[in-house]
């Protein structure tokens, strides 16, 4: 088992303390809280993973795992980005997603989980469509950064409802099981989606069209949920 002291020299901010949320992780992890808002509602920190440790609740949708996997490789080969630059290239998506996530409780309270999810899927589909149609001989800003704005909006609207709907109307006794099954399906869906994208092969545009097709299926499912909810409401 990796000891706490073995991470001291390898962590930029220091390893912090043994993670108090260890029930959500497998293996040894360490939490270092860097700053906290005055009302203690927002915390910013780092989590260091010991070798072999992993997270139990990361969510990867079928299209997005492929997106995160393939797009950095394309940017490194097409634009000559190094690994750090390829990571920073996702900044537009990350910032938009973060800002929307901060307002998401208010949005879902007003419009409901299903309509929020549907809007997020549509924005995600629009972003992926723009990427699939993009000319990667053009600049990064027009070909990649602009679609990432829509992808960030979609991701911001999706991540919470897609999990919340998995435990909708379950009893308190079954809520934990329902959440586990929901996140298990996300974990399985990501690798399956990536496998299908790679099996189809072709260039990056072909891969993006396959990812877009996954999102179209998700939009249809979300639309069905919204219509079903409206019918139940009318009853």
Describe this structure in words.
- This protein has 235 residues and is mainly α.
- It has two domains: 4-55, no CATH class; 62-234, Growth Hormone, Chain: A, CATH 1.20.1250.20.
- The chain contains seven helices and five strands, in the order βββββααααααα.
- The strands form two sheets. A three-stranded antiparallel beta sheet has the order 1-3-4, with no helix packed on it.
- Strand 3 (29-36) and strand 4 (43-49) form a beta hairpin.
- Helix 6 packs antiparallel against helix 7 (204-234).
- The longest helix has 31 residues, at 204-234.
- The protein is globular, with a radius of gyration of 20 Å.
- Mean pLDDT is 79; it is low at 56-60.
Content-based structural category: mainly alpha
Mean pLDDT: 79
Major beta sheet summary: 3 strands, antiparallel
Task: Please report the total strand number as a whole number.
Answer: 5
Task: Give the helix/strand layout.
Blueprint (H helix, E strand, L loop, with lengths): L16 E2 L6 E2 L2 E8 L6 E7 L4 E2 L6 H17 L4 H6 L2 H21 L1 H21 L6 H25 L7 H29 L3 H31 L1
Antiparallel strand pairs: 1-3, 2-5, 3-4
Helix pairs in contact: 1-6, 1-7, 3-4, 3-5, 4-5, 4-7, 6-7
């Amino acid at each position: 088992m990796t000891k706490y002291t073995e991470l001291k020299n390898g962590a930029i901010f220091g390893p912090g303390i043994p993670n108090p949320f260890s029930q959500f992780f497998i293996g040894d992890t360490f939490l270092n809280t860097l700053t906290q808002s005055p009302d203690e509602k927002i915390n910013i920190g780092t989590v260091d993973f010991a070798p072999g440790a992993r997270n139990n609740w990361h969510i990867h949708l079928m299209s997005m795992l492929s997106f995160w996997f393939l797009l950095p490789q394309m940017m490194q080969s097409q634009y000559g980005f190094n690994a750090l630059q390829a990571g920073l290239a996702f900044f537009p998506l990350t910032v938009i997603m973060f800002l929307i996530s901060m307002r998401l409780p208010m949005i879902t309270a007003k419009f409901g989980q299903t309509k929020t999810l549907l809007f997020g899927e549509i924005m995600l589909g629009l972003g992926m469509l723009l990427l699939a149609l993009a000319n990667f001989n053009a600049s990064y800003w027009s070909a990649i950064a602009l679609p990432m704005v829509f992808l960030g909006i979609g991701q911001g609207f999706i991540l919470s409802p897609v999990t919340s709907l998995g435990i909708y109307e379950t009893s308190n006794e079954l809520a934990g099981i329902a959440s586990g099954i929901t996140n298990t399906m996300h974990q399985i869906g990501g690798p399956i989606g990536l496998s299908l994208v790679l099996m189809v092969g072709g260039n990056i545009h072909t891969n993006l069209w396959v990812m877009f097709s996954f999102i179209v299926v998700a939009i249809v499912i979300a639309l069905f949920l919204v219509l079903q909810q409206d019918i139940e409401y009318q009853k």
